């Protein structure tokens, strides 16, 4: 800094009173404004697309259903239903309302006597839990690993990327199945297994971004000014790769829900929880298809399809924002 | 001694025999292969023995064609690269041996201005945050007042209007002014300006250049200008160094080098600058051939393959030292076998004094 015998245009400022109080407020306001503007702008571009809007409505609907499941569901998902007259367990199944208008169950019941509508409503909880948790962790771990590998380069990059290569060598569904079989069938293990495999693609893409960003002159300028590595990663690299992390998060929702349904369908789902995948599995186990009980397996299939398609549509819409060449 | 203490007429920066080599294949596989086959790694000799002094308030121009190592030299000067060999002394302190404190002080005193103003500002940071960033890193007080003053100095008026703007809302000239304000806000003593106006519209250049002239004067700055534009360097610099393939081939006061170039390469460079007068007659010096291989460096004088004044085997076998010469009037030093060494150089060599302070000593050792 300036000493007295050196010409400086800042000389008089060093004696002046501080104005830190005013500054800190301004700084927060500026950061807030940046976030509001960026998110606002991207939101506008995102909702410009009708399909994306529909996908968001669908996802919001399922989220609301998942949150208010206990209020919406007429019965417990794993509560056996009894025939109305006698206290007999339903031996077969009950037809849904649109086949037998006398039926007490809107979507009928399963062979075990579970209410299908209630199972469907509670099943949305598992799907969204898996989807959102997997998305957050996939994007988070992938971004962190990618930024570290890309920024530091050299041996760190080599090590991290060989781990990613190793994970790329493992097929998603079979590995999740084996991991769940080893760890035991529970929803948390399924989520864990999905995350372990899914962060690989995010890490790859974020790394390549970080590799090109760290050579950009604004990063060099920060280095010349004496910024620490953490400062550069958090202030200069992370904000510039964040749209990509969001994009991969959005796609991760869909993949995770599909993987969970697949694993549950094979019979490695959480036995104490209802998910759309376990519904499909039990309908297969009771040969619903052979008896033509389509109202048992079609609704969970449609729900899976709707949520997954919504996830992909939002991801695709976001991709167009982050990569303007697609527009 | 603190790196912040200024002294009168001091030599701010001493660069001695600076070398920066980049390894070609750095991956695990190729290094494994190398250890199996026993082959040596290939290196690009980006900078290969550059020496110069920079006094306080002095401006030095580094010129040369693309790939001659001028940008790598500039980046090494502000420690964006760790030099492979040689030393850079800032106020007498060797930067390769500096501890964290000294390095932090150096970071406050050395800044860089980059070529492309569209790339040198973070698109997600406001003008205020961009300029305030160095202040926050070094915990400097009076952030707002300093940022305001720096913007005013860079002729962005009124400064408060620019605080909340993003780079994409600014023109190229305004961005470069913001970059200059960022470099100045820490009140540095030394700036490396890498092609500061080459990406700007011609109409904006004069304004930015006069700003940089004012900055050199009012801050008493030492500046290293890197450019391929000799007319710009002639306008801005006290001294000029011409680089070819990682080495300085001619160095001296700007007027001497431009008006009276001695090295064949310098002559061809200066001849390539267009003169806005069709009537003027001058000897054409055209360069044949290509720049040599930076990995497998040519022996002897690196320019020998393209030189119009080739004088025989000595050019291919012996590397010419950069030294004062006796054959001409100018005060510049030239690395060429065409000329006889000046008397004092001969004396120094005969006396075998280990005068490392002399520019020629390092290259004469080869």
Describe this structure in words.
Chain A has 327 residues and is mostly helical. Chain A has 12 helices and no strands. The longest helix of chain A has 40 residues, at 229-268. The two termini of chain A are 49 Å apart. In chain B, the strands form 2 sheets. Chain B has an 8-stranded mixed sheet, with helices on both faces. A 4-stranded antiparallel sheet of chain B has the order 2-1-4-5. Chain B has 366 residues and is of the alpha/beta class. Helix content of chain B is 34%, strand content 19%. Chain B folds into 2 domains: 11-237, P-loop containing nucleotide triphosphate hydrolases (Rossmann fold, 3-Layer(aba) Sandwich), CATH 3.40.50; 254-273 and 287-364, no CATH class. Chains A and B meet through α1, α5, α8 and α9 of A and α3, β6, α4 and α5 of B. Chain B: Residues 13-270 form the ABC transporter domain.
Annotated CATH homologous superfamily of chain A: MetI-like
Number of helices of chain B: 14
CATH class of the largest domain in chain B: Alpha Beta
Number of strands of chain B: 12
Question: Major sheet of chain B, described briefly?
Answer: 8 strands, mixed
In what order do the strands lie side by side in the largest sheet of chain B? 6-7-8-3-9-10-12-11
The CATH architecture designation of chain A is Orthogonal Bundle
Q: What is the fold-level CATH name, i.e. the topology of the largest domain in chain B?
A: Rossmann fold
* Alpha carbon gap, first and last residue of chain A: 49 Å
**Low-confidence sequence ranges of chain B:** 353-366
Largest sheet of chain A: none
Oligomeric state: heterodimer
Helix content estimate of chain A: over 70%
């Amino acid at each position: 800094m300036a000493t007295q015998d050196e010409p400086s245009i800042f000389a008089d400022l060093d004696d002046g009173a501080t104005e830190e109080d005013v500054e800190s407020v301004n700084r927060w306001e500026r950061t807030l404004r940046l976030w509001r503007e960026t998110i606002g702008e991207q939101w506008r571009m995102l909702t410009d697309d009708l399909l994306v809007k529909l996908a968001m409505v669908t996802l919001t609907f399922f989220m609301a259903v998942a949150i208010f499941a206990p209020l919406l569901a007429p019965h417990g998902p794993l509560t056996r239903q009894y025939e109305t007259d006698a206290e007999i367990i339903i031996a077969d199944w009950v037809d849904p309302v649109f086949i037998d208008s006398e039926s007490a169950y809107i979507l009928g019941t399963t062979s075990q006597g579970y209410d299908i509508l209630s199972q469907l409503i509670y099943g949305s909880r598992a799907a969204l839990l898996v989807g959102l948790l997997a998305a957050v962790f996939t994007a988070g771990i992938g971004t962190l690993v990618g930024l570290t590998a890309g920024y530091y380069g050299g041996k760190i990059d080599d090590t991290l990327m060989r781990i990613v290569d190793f994970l790329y060598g493992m097929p998603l569904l079979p590995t999740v199945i084996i991991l769940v079989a080893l760890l035991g069938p529970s929803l948390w293990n399924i989520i864990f297994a999905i995350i372990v495999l899914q962060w690989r693609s995010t890490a790859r893409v974020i790394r390549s971004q970080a590799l090109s960003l760290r050579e950009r002159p604004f990063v060099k300028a920060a280095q010349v000014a004496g910024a620490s590595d953490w400062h550069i990663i958090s202030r200069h690299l992370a904000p510039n790769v964040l749209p990509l992390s969001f994009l991969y998060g959005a796609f991760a929702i869909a993949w995770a829900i599909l993987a969970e349904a697949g694993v549950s369908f094979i019979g490695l789902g959480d036995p104490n929880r209802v998910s759309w995948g376990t519904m499909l599995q039990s309908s297969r186990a009771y040969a619903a298809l052979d008896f033509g009980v389509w109202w048992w397996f079609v609704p969970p299939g449609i729900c899976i399809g709707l949520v997954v398609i919504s996830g992909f549509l939002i991801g695709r819409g976001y991709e167009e924002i982050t990569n303007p060449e697609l527009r | 001694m603190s790196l912040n203490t200024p002294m009168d007429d001091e030599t701010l920066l001493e660069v001695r025999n600076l070398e920066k080599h980049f390894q070609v294949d750095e991956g695990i596989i190729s290094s494994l292969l190398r250890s199996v086959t026993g082959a040596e790694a290939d290196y690009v000799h980006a900078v290969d023995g550059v020496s110069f002094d920079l006094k306080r308030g002095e401006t030095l121009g580094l010129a040369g064609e693309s790939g001659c190592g001028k940008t790598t030299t500039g980046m090494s000067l502000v420690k964006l690269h760790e030099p492979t060999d040689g030393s850079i002394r800032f106020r007498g302190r060797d930067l390769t041996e500096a501890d964290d404190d000294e390095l932090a002080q150096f970071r406050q005193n050395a800044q860089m201005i980059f070529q492309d103003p569209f790339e040198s500002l973070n698109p997600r940071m406001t003008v205020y945050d961009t300029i305030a960033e160095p202040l926050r890193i070094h915990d400097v007080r009076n952030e707002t007042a300093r940022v305001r003053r720096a913007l005013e100095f860079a002729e962005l008026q009124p400064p408060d209007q620019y605080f909340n703007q993003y780079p994409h809302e600014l023109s190229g000239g305004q961005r470069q002014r913001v970059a200059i304000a960022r470099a100045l806000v820490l009140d540095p003593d030394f700036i490396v300006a890498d092609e500061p106006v080459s990406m700007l519209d011609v109409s904006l250049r004069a304004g930015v250049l006069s700003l940089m002239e004012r900055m050199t004067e009012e801050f008493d700055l030492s500046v290293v200008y890197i450019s391929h534009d000799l007319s710009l360097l002639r306008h801005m610099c006290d001294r000029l160094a011409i680089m070819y393939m990682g080495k300085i081939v001619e160095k001296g006061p700007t007027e001497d080098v431009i008006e009276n170039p001695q090295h064949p390469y310098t002559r061809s460079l200066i001849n390539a600058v267009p003169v806005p007068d069709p009537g003027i007659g001058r000897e054409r010096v055209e360069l044949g051939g290509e720049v040599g291989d930076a990995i497998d460096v040519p022996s002897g004088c690196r320019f020998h393959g393209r030189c119009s004044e080739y004088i025989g085997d000595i050019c291919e076998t012996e590397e010419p030292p950069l030294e004062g010469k006796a054959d001409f009037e100018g005060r510049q030093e030239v690395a060429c076998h065409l000329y006889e060494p000046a008397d004092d150089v001969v004396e120094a060599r005969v006396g075998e004094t280990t005068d490392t302070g002399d520019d020629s000593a390092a290259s004469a050792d080869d």
